[in-house]
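Notebook entry, structure prediction.
Reason for the run: the old model in the group folder had no record of what sequence produced it. Starting over properly, with the input documented here first.
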Amino acid sequence: MRPDYAVFAFEEMDADLSRPPLAAVRALQAGGVLPKAEGWKAASPALRKAIAIQGSQHRLDLPAIRTLTTQIPPRFVQLVGPRAEPDPTTVPVRLAQVIATIHPLTTEQWTALHPFERFVLDALWANTRLLWRALDEMSKLQGHRLFGVTTGQVWVGALARCEVRAGPSAFTAITSTGVLGGRGVDLARATGRRIARRAPELLDTSADKSIGPVELECRVHGTEGFAVWQGHVSSDEGEFLPGASLLAVTAAAAALCDMMLPADPGAWVAGAAIRQDPWFADGATDEDSTQAFSRQQVR
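New structure, fully documented this time:
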């Protein structure tokens, strides 16, 4: 079944495609072109969208792709060897090994996928969180060959986590409409996302990275006096970025803690770490989630 999208929702793209979506990456790599960040920014939104649309097609039109890519200023373009499309008859070995931990793909399922979808899964093989999200998005399309494959599943993998500790009354205050309109968690999340996107400026290890999808979720246990943040930040090339993920959760936790200090001056942040945990936004229970682990560690 042909997907009806040139951009996946999990890619978190803006309307102007200020970062190259995977569809554009497919087109660019097929044409043997690798634009620098400055080159993509120099391209008009209309050109970016046209390249992405070309990359989402069943059959790539290389002459059309080359015509489009020649409009990117040459000084911002690197010429690389064209990347071949994944074999439609066999799941790539490295992908098969990783995806088996999420949902094994049969040869029939793999062959039935749209070529763009096969490209996406193969491109994300090293980032199981994005791979899971891509599968989940496909599986929710009615009539898709993978329809329902992620139903009832919870992703488990490397993520950043951090806690905020305070008295129950402080959590009651921060979630009430009388304090910031009850939007404290949302505002703290926005803070964490902004900081994550500045990771290339703040962390030397991320200096050459461009930030892609940023996931940041919070689960509040007010009566027990703590909240847990989970974060997973990836580069626009699909690489998991531990440092940026830690920045995101600690910034969000610090922002939430700051809002709670008037109600509880003893509120504090604890337990920042990279963990192998379930992502509770996928439906993990308290027994499975980060919180169960964190209660054993925080003293």
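Summary: The radius of gyration is 21 Å.
The old model has been moved to the deprecated folder.
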